[in-house]
Design brief:
- The structure holds 2 protein chains of 2 kinds.
- Chain A is an all-alpha fold.
- Chain A is built from 15 helices and no strands.
- By secondary structure, chain B is an alpha+beta fold.
- Chain B folds into 2 domains: 3-239, Rossmann fold, CATH 3.40.50.300; 244-362, Beta Barrel (OB fold (Dihydrolipoamide Acetyltransferase, E2P)), CATH 2.40.50.100.
- In chain B, the strands form 4 sheets. In chain B, strands 6-7-8-3-9-10 form a 6-stranded mixed beta sheet, with helices on both faces. A 5-stranded antiparallel beta sheet of chain B has the order 11-12-18-19-20. Chain B has a 5-stranded antiparallel beta sheet with strand order 13-17-14-15-16.
- Residues 250-260 of chain B have low confidence and may be disordered.
- The chains are: A mainly alpha, B alpha+beta.
- Chains A and B meet through helix 11 and helix 12 of A and strand 6 and helix 4 of B.
- Bound molecules: adenosine-5'-triphosphate (ATP) and magnesium ion.
- The site of adenosine-5'-triphosphate has 12 residues of chain B, from strand 2 and helix 1.
Chain lengths: 301, 364
C-alpha cells in the first residue's frame, strides 16, 4: 500500500520538489537515439575520414607549389576554357532541368494516369545507370549516324562531339535530382490554398504563378543546386559524347585526368583545388538563397 | 443575396457524400450547417462555392438571388470562402493576402493601388488587426490568421460568405470570443452567411437557422430553439444538446405508453429533478445513487445510477439547489423526470410529470 502511493506521487500528481532532479534525468534519457556524445563523435569521425582528410590532401599538395606556379597552373588557356565549358554548360543543364523537372514532378504528383508508376521509376534511371553506359547510349543516339543524330545533323544541329552533346549528357544525369526534390513538396502543397486563390477570382495562370510557384521556389533551388553540383563533377557520361577537343569541348574533370596521365600531379591538384572552392562557394550561395526564400514563406503553423 | 440549392447529389467514386440535399438561405441570414464528422457539411459548402460540382444529370440547381449559378466556376460566383485551416498565402504579407482578390480582378474592374491599399486598411480595421499588415501569416496566432482569412474573403465585397468550421482549430476561449465577434459582425454587414460546424453549442448560439445533417442527408431544418425543442428523430435529439437515453421498459412511464414495439425514452438533463428520498414519493420517482458531482458556474452536473438497473444518467441542477439539498457522492436520492420524450413507431410522444405525480401527455 505504501509503495503504491509513492509510485503515484511521481506519476500524475504534482511532483514534490525533491523528485525534480530525477525527473529531469529521465527526460534526457528519453531521446529517440540514445547517447548524443557517441553519435556525434561517430558523425565527426566519419565525415573527417570520408570527406575532410581527402579534401585537405588536395590543399596540402597544392600548398607546396608557390603562388606563381599555382596561378600558372590554374590559368593556362586549356584549363580556363575547360572551366567555361564545365560551369557554363552545367549551369544551363541545371536550369533546363529545374524547368522541365518541375513539369515532370508536377505531372507525376498531380495526375493519375496509366503507367504513372513506370514513368516514376524511369526518372531514377540516370541515378542507377553507370555513367559510362549513359555516355555510350547517348553517343550512339546523337552521333552523326545515330538514331537521332542522322535527322538532327542535316538540320545543322551538331548534337554529338560539341557542347550541345555535353549539355545533353548533363541534363540527362541531373533530371532525377530536380524531380525527386520537388515531388514531396508538391505532394504536401495544400490544395486549399490553390482553391482559395481560385475562389478569390484569380485565373489558373495567376494561381500558378503567384501562389504555387513562389511556394515551390526553395525546393526548385535545392533541385537546381543538386543538379548543378552533380553536373560539375560528372565525368563518365560526358567524355564519350563531348569528343574532348582541347579548348572546345573539354570539361575540367577530363583535364585533370589528362594531367594525371602525364604525371603532372601539381597542376592536377591545383585545378582540383579550384574546382573544390568553386563548387563549395556555389553551393553556399544557393543554400543562402534557399534559406532566404524559405524565410519569406516560413511555416510555423 | 439569397441562396437556393435544390436536389444536390454528390458521389465520390462510389461513395455517396450527398444524397438529395436541398437548402434555402434567405438574404442576410446566418445559417449553420451542423452534423457529425463525414456527414457532408464541407461538401455542401464547397458545392455552393463552386469548388466542387454536383453530380451531372441529377437535376441539381444552385441559385444565388434567383440567378442560376450551377455551372459557374468558383471565381465567378462572388462568394467569400473561409477554409478550416485558413489557407493563407504563406509567402505573401497580410496586406498582399487581403488584397489578392482585388489584384486578381480583370484589368477593367481592378482598383488602383491606392484604392486597394485603402480597402486593405479598412478590412484590417474591420477585423481589428490594424498594424499587422506588413507581417507574414506565420507571424500571427491562429485566431488572428482566421480573421485575416475572413478579411481576405470579404475584400471583393462578396454577396455570400461561406465558412467551413472557421474556429475548429482554436482553443475554447478564442473560439467563444470570435464566435460573438462574428455574430455582431454579420449583423452589421448583413451578409448572407453559411457556417459549418460540428459543435452544436456554436450552431445554436450563432445561427438564425440550423440545418442538421446526418449521413449525406438533411435531418432537420429550423430555428435553433425549435430544433432543440422539437427534434424529429432520435439522431437530432441525441446530436443536439445532452440527453439521457433509456431503452424501453426502463422506467415506470412505460406502463402507460409505448410498450409496444421498440421504443426509446429521452430525458434532457435539465428535466431531471432530484429530491431527497423522504420527500413525498410517487409513482414516477426513481431511486438512484449519486456517482459524481461536477459543478462549474451556475450549474451542477450530477451523474446518477438507477439502483438495481445499472443505468447511468445525468442531471443538471442549479448550484443553489445543490447546496440546498446538500447532495454528496454516494447518497441515495429520488429522481423525477419532469419532461420525457418517447420515440416509437417513427415519432415522438412528449409527456410531463406533474408535481402531484400525474403523467400528462403534451399535445404534439
Ligand atoms: N474529394 C473527395 N474524395 C472522396 N471522398 C470524399 C471527398 N470529399 C469528401 N469525401 C467523403 O465525403 C464524405 C463527406 O465529407 P465532408 O468533408 O463533406 O464531411 P464533413 O461533414 O465536412 O465532415 P467533417 O466534420 O469531418 O469535416 C466523407 O465520408 C468523405 O470521406
Ligand atoms: Mg468538413
Amino acid at each position: 500500500m505504501i509503495s503504491n502511493t509513492s509510485r503515484e506521487d511521481t506519476g500524475d500528481r504534482p511532483i514534490p520538489p525533491t523528485s525534480v532532479p530525477k525527473r529531469r534525468r529521465e527526460r534526457i534519457n528519453r531521446r529517440v537515439i540514445p547517447g548524443f556524445g557517441l553519435t556525434m563523435g561517430f558523425t565527426l569521425t566519419y565525415l573527417t575520414l570520408l570527406v575532410l582528410i581527402p579534401l585537405s590532401a588536395v590543399f596540402i599538395r597544392t600548398s607546396g607549389m608557390g603562388w606563381d606556379d599555382f596561378w600558372k597552373a590554374i590559368s593556362s588557356p586549356q584549363v580556363v576554357s575547360a572551366y567555361k565549358v564545365t560551369f557554363g554548360v552545367s549551369f544551363y543543364a541545371a536550369l533546363t532541368n529545374a524547368f522541365f523537372g518541375f513539369i515532370v514532378a508536377w505531372v507525376l504528383t498531380r495526375y493519375q494516369f496509366p503507367g504513372r508508376k513506370l514513368v516514376d521509376a524511369l526518372v531514377d534511371l540516370p541515378f542507377a545507370l553507370p555513367t559510362a553506359v549513359a555516355g555510350i547510349a547517348l553517343t550512339a543516339l546523337y552521333a552523326p549516324n545515330g538514331w537521332l543524330g542522322q535527322f538532327l545533323y542535316p538540320l545543322g544541329l551538331e548534337t554529338a562531339y560539341s557542347t550541345t552533346g555535353i549539355f545533353i549528357a548533363l541534363t540527362f544525369i541531373g533530371l532525377p535530382f530536380v524531380v525527386r526534390t520537388l515531388q514531396p513538396v508538391i505532394e504536401v502543397f495544400d490544395r486549399e490554398v490553390e482553391e482559395a486563390g481560385a475562389s478569390l477570382g484569380a485565373s489558373r495562370l495567376r494561381v500558378f504563378f503567384t501562389i504555387i510557384v513562389p511556394a515551390l521556389i526553395p525546393a526548385m533551388l535545392t533541385g537546381f543546386a543538386l543538379a548543378f553540383a552533380r553536373a560539375i563533377g560528372e565525368y563518365g557520361s560526358v567524355i564519350f559524347i563531348s569528343g574532348n577537343q582541347p579548348m572546345k569541348t573539354e570539361i575540367v574533370p577530363l583535364v585533370i585526368v589528362k594531367f594525371l596521365e602525364n604525371y603532372n600531379y601539381p597542376q592536377a591538384t591545383a585545378v582540383a583545388c579550384v574546382m573544390l572552392i568553386a563548387s563549395f562557394v556555389l553551393l553556399l550561395i544557393v543554400n543562402i538563397l534557399q534559406r532566404w526564400t524559405e524565410s519569406i514563406g516560413q511555416a510555423r503553423s | 443575396m439569397s441562396i437556393r440549392a435544390l436536389n444536390i447529389h454528390k458521389t465520390f467514386g462510389n461513395y455517396k457524400a450527398l444524397d438529395d440535399v436541398s437548402l434555402e438561405v434567405p438574404e442576410g441570414r446566418l445559417v449553420s450547417l451542423l452534423g457529425p464528422s463525414g456527414s457532408g457539411k464541407t461538401t455542401v459548402l464547397r458545392i455552393l462555392a463552386g469548388l466542387e460540382f454536383p453530380d451531372p444529370k441529377t437535376g441539381a440547381t444552385i441559385e444565388f438571388h434567383g440567378e442560376d449559378v450551377t455551372n459557374l466556376s468558383a471565381g465567378k460566383r462572388g462568394v467569400g470562402f473561409v477554409f478550416q485551416h485558413y489557407a493563407l498565402f504563406k509567402h505573401m504579407t497580410i496586406e498582399r493576402n487581403i488584397g489578392f482578390g482585388l489584384r486578381a480582378k480583370p484589368r477593367r474592374e481592378r482598383p488602383g493601388d491606392e484604392a486597394i491599399a485603402a480597402r486593405v486598411k479598412e478590412l484590417l480595421e474591420l477585423v481589428q488587426l490594424d498594424g499587422l499588415g506588413k507581417r507574414y501569416p506565420s507571424e500571427l496566432s491562429g485566431g488572428q490568421r482566421q480573421r485575416i482569412a475572413l478579411a481576405r474573403a470579404l475584400a471583393s465585397q462578396p454577396k455570400v460568405l461561406l465558412l467551413d468550421e472557421p474556429f475548429g482549430a482554436l482553443d475554447a476561449k478564442v473560439r467563444k470570443d470570435l464566435r460573438r465577434w462574428l455574430r455582431l459582425f454579420q449583423e452589421e454587414i448583413k451578409i448572407t452567411t453559411v457556417f459549418v460546424t460540428h459543435d452544436q453549442e456554436e450552431a445554436l448560439e450563432l445561427a438564425d437557422e440550423v440545418v442538421v445533417m446526418n449521413n449525406a442527408r438533411i435531418a432537420q431544418v429550423g430555428a435553433p430553439q425549435d430544433v432543440y425543442d422539437n427534434p424529429v428523430s432520435p439522431f437530432v435529439i441525441e446530436f443536439l444538446g445532452n440527453v439521457n437515453r433509456f431503452t424501453a421498459g426502463v422506467s415506470k412511464p412505460s406502463k402507460s405508453q409505448a410498450t409496444e414495439g421498440k421504443s426509446v425514452l429521452y430525458v434532457r438533463p435539465h428535466d431531471v429533478d432530484i429530491r431527497l428520498t423522504d420527500e413525498n414519493p410517487h409513482d414516477y420517482a426513481i431511486r438512484s445513487k449519486i456517482q459524481h458531482i461536477f459543478s462549474a458556474g451556475n450549474y451542477a452536473r450530477i451523474s446518477l445510477d438507477r439502483i438495481g438497473y445499472n443505468e447511468p444518467f445525468e442531471a443538471e441542477i442549479s448550484r443553489e439547489k445543490l447546496r440546498q439539498l446538500d447532495l454528496k457522492v454516494g447518497m441515495i436520492v429520488s429522481v423525477v423526470f419532469r419532461h420525457i420524450r418517447v420515440f416509437a413507431k417513427g415519432q415522438f410522444k412528449e409527456s410531463n410529470v406533474r408535481e402531484d405525480g400525474q403523467l400528462v401527455e403534451v399535445a404534439g
